[in-house]
Design a protein that fits this description.
The complex is a heterodimer. Chain A is mainly α. Helices cover 67% and strands 0% of the residues of chain A. Chain A has a domain of 282 residues. The longest helix of chain A is centred in the first third of the chain and has 38 residues. The radius of gyration of chain A is 24 Å and the shape is globular. Chain B is of the alpha+beta class. In chain B, a hairpin with a 2-residue loop joins strand 4 and strand 5. The longest helix of chain B has 30 residues. Classes of the chains: A mainly alpha, B alpha+beta. Chains A and B meet through helix 7, helix 11, helix 13, helix 14 and strand 1 of A and helix 4, helix 5, helix 7, strand 6 and helix 14 of B.
Chain lengths: 407, 362
């Protein structure tokens, strides 16, 4: 008994884990302490994702209502805050349908397959200073790998539903995800190069100024790519409700639908947390020792707001336009960004390979004008490609009595 | 792969069914299947007297009831050989143009909803449409199924607070519409999705006998309000917007311009209107046209040429009532519109034609 966490453990950086481990260590054998500490934090993570998803659902409906000139849900609880619970109760009590001809096992497994990667992603996100489940030294790679696993769930749903709309949605989703994975990964390489580590905790520590300023192109590409992977507007073709009903989850009802829906909103929450960590400085802020969680939540909410705002604003792109956007616009942009960042890091780093605050400001001063210039320039070229017809300038009105020529 | 789009589908504008054969996402074959909303309006009209039929016309194109009333009343007036008094004519023109605005707002709102913009443009256009329906409620107590017009005029004069409310609406709507136009007309994604998609050539449009904004978007100058003016349109000054490419964007553009022109007409009606009777006073309660008279009442409805063909056998009810429904006839271009384009474009193209199933199936 009375065991302390060894300083070479991968959990040592995690203050919360250390605290629970050491407290439990006074009561139970050391081998159990790991189980207790791990389970406690996992419970917290799973619940934070699910409850967070519920809250994001409420926030999204409320904000969309405001942006639509409506009120939004306001009946159950203060400001309608308990609406997600009412929805959940409704969905649980509904009949859980499995369509005839569906592949029952795969169909049932889908909500789980989609939910698990989401919870896994939260394992490496630092919520406050040195507070995460595992400080993986390949954190960024882990997030990218795990987040793409959701695609498998989507394709399973589309394939097993025995529904043609679901198949449409699944096929579209896979095509989009594969295309957008490439620019997203390349855009993150710049961040990794500057911070010199793939651990998310180290990346936050490295952000003496937020990488939003140092890597604006990477942020742009990452947010665009992630909204495509999350099936958010304007890339929501996998569940385009005006085209293919609900896409891959057309046939899901009851609790299965609730889980898939929670996964979707939860994914938005987790991805916003990742963006806040990688680009907005995570828990960095005034009084970060005590208020780190507050700054983290605030930044995450800001990103979520942007996602919801975009959803209320833009029409949807077509599949070929989304593909073109990825391969002809975002990929070259992220490659240029990678090259520029590589040169900058090579020239500015000191002997030990570190970048000082002044170096980061120099990079920001170069990269921000560069980003504006490149996005405008390449955007103009790209716009001509997808929008070749002439813009209407004059309005051809015909006053007076018309003449008609019938051929 | 054959897919049944509809009869239950979020964006087929009611119970419209399309059997589509896809090759990947590309459409190879289209077969529209109609009749899910058939209520036998034409047959029902033979069982009711001439005034009662007005209520049936409300339920055909329920997004532009006023214009349906107008077309039917014009046909009955032709049968009887009567014309409504001046104030009645102006009121009819005014409410028909308000209804055109409301109908086009729905068309534009749903068009962009189908492009994938989640609700916002739709809610913005419905905000203005609500005000128009409130005005109709002031006039006749009903918002959608109005039955405001009668053969020989309209059934009641305006209440006192109608005119200030109309002025207030026009002022607000000018601002709201400008805002919508500013947000929508040059939107990058909207133009990328709609320009050059599903173009209909003028020849094809004429051969398929489509009418209304769809025909005008193809560049054909064809508007019954100008060509054979009814009610008070001969005194009104307005332009006909004409499209250039006949693609989805042009159809949307033509509707947006027509809303502006309708606002012009409404303002002119307000200036020109004078107190007086709104309906011919000495009409009998039950109208009895002479035996064997035929009439063809034709208006430019919000969706195209709407016409009622009435035959009288001297009885209290029409012997035959045939409706030329623009939505149904505009569907003749479905195949040319859809084949060769993809699934997302198909939804938008259908939205750009602006069909109304209540009118298609009657």
């Amino acid at each position: 008994m009375n065991c302390q966490l060894a300083s070479d453990s991968i959990f040592y950086q995690n203050a919360l884990y250390r605290f629970i481990y050491d407290t439990a260590g006074t009561l139970v054998p050391c081998s159990f302490s790991h189980v207790i500490a791990g389970l406690t934090i996992m419970l917290m993570l799973v619940n934070s994702v699910l409850l967070g998803a519920a809250l994001v659902t409420w926030l999204e409906r409320r904000l969309l209502g405001r942006l639509h000139n409506r009120i939004g849900p306001n009946r159950w609880g203060p400001f309608g805050l308990l609406q997600p619970i009412a929805d959940l109760v409704k969905l649980i009590t509904k009949e859980d349908l499995v369509p005839s001809g569906a592949d029952r096992i795969i169909f049932t497994a889908v909500p789980l397959v989609m939910m698990v990667p989401l919870v896994l992603m939260t394992a490496v996100i630092p919520f406050a200073q040195d507070t995460m489940l595992a400080d993986l030294n390949i954190g960024v790679l882990f997030i990218l790998a795990v987040s793409s696993a959701t695609t498998i769930g989507i394709f399973m749903a589309g394939w097993s539903s025995n529904n043609r709309y679901a198949l449409f949605g699944a096929a579209r989703s896979v095509a989009v995800l594969i295309s957008y994975e490439v620019p997203v990964v390349i855009s993150l390489l710049g961040v990794v190069m500057i911070s010199g580590s793939m651990s998310l905790n180290d990346i936050v520590h490295a952000q003496s100024i937020p990488f939003l300023l140092v890597q604006p192109i990477a942020l742009f590409v990452f947010v665009t790519g992630m909204s495509a992977e999350l099936n958010r507007t304007p890339f929501d073709i996998a569940e385009a409700e005006s085209e293919i009903i609900a896409g891959y989850h057309t046939e899901y009802s009851g609790i299965k639908f609730a889980l898939i829906f929670a996964t979707e909103t939860g994914a938005m929450l987790v991805v916003s947390a990742v963006i806040a960590t990688l680009f907005l400085g995570g828990w960095n802020g005034p009084l970060e020792d005590f208020l780190g969680w507050f700054w983290f939540l605030l930044k995450t909410l800001a990103i979520i707001f942007v996602f919801i705002w975009v959803r209320a604003t833009y029409p949807r792109l077509r599949l070929d336009q989304i593909m073109a956007l990825s391969w002809k616009f975002l990929l070259p942009l992220s490659l240029i960004n990678l090259a520029i960042t590589a040169v900058e890091v090579f020239l500015l780093r000191d002997a030990s390979g570190h970048l000082s605050l002044a170096d980061l400001w120099i990079m920001a001063a170069i990269n921000i004008p560069m980003a504006i210039l490149l996005i405008l320039l390449m955007g103009g070229l790209f716009q001509k490609k997808i929008n070749s017809l002439p813009v209407r300038t004059e309005t051809p009105m015909v006053p007076g009595v018309p003449t008609i020529e019938v051929k | 792969m054959t897919v049944n789009v509809g009869p239950q589908h979020p964006s087929t504008h009611g119970v419209f069914r399309l059997r589509i054969t896809f090759d990947g996402e590309e459409i190879v074959e289209v077969e529209p299947i109609l009749g899910y909303l058939h209520r036998g309006s034409e047959k029902l009209a033979e069982e009711r007297n001439y005034v009662q039929v007005v209520t049936l016309t409300d339920r055909m194109d329920y997004t532009s009831s006023m214009i349906n009333n107008q077309a039917y009343c014009l046909a009955v007036e032709q049968l009887l050989g009567i014309t409504p008094p001046k104030r009645g004519k102006y009121l009819r023109t005014l409410v028909a143009e308000l209804q055109r605005i409301a109908s086009h707002l729905i068309a534009v709102g749903f068009f962009i909803q189908e492009l994938g913009a989640f609700g916002t443009p739709l809610m913005y256009s419905f905000r203005s449409r609500e005000r128009i329906l409130d005005l109709f409620e002031m006039l006749c107590g009903a918002r959608v199924t109005v039955s405001y017009m009668r053969p020989g005029g309209v059934f009641a004069d305006t209440p006192n607070d109608f005119w200030p409310a109309l002025e207030a609406f026009l002022d607000d709507f000018a601002v709201e519409f400008e805002e919508m136009e500013h947000l929508l007309m040059e939107n990058e994604i909207l133009t990328a999705r709609t320009r050059g998609v599903s173009p209909i050539s003028p020849d094809l449009a004429i051969n398929c006998s489509v009418s209304g904004p769809v025909l005008r978007a193809s560049g054909v100058n064809w508007d019954w309000r100008k060509m054979s003016p009814y009610d008070a349109y001969d005194e009104m000054e307005f332009d006909i917007p004409i499209g250039r490419n006949g693609d989805n964007y042009d159809r949307f553009w033509v509707r947006m311009q027509e809303i502006k022109q309708s606002m012009r007409i409404v303002r002119q009606c307000i200036d020109i209107i004078e107190p007086g009777p709104v309906r011919i006073a000495d009409l009998p309660l039950v109208l009895r046209p002479e035996v064997g008279v035929e009439a063809y009442g034709r208006v430019e409805a919000s969706k195209g040429e709407l016409a009622f063909y009435l035959v009288s056998d001297g009885g209290v009810a029409p012997y035959r009532c045939k409706v030329r429904a623009p939505s149904l006839i505009n569907l003749t271009i479905t195949e040319h519109l859809l084949v060769g384009w993809t699934l997302p474009d198909m939804i938008v193209s259908l939205g750009s034609v602006d069909i109304n199933m209540g009118e298609v199936d009657r």
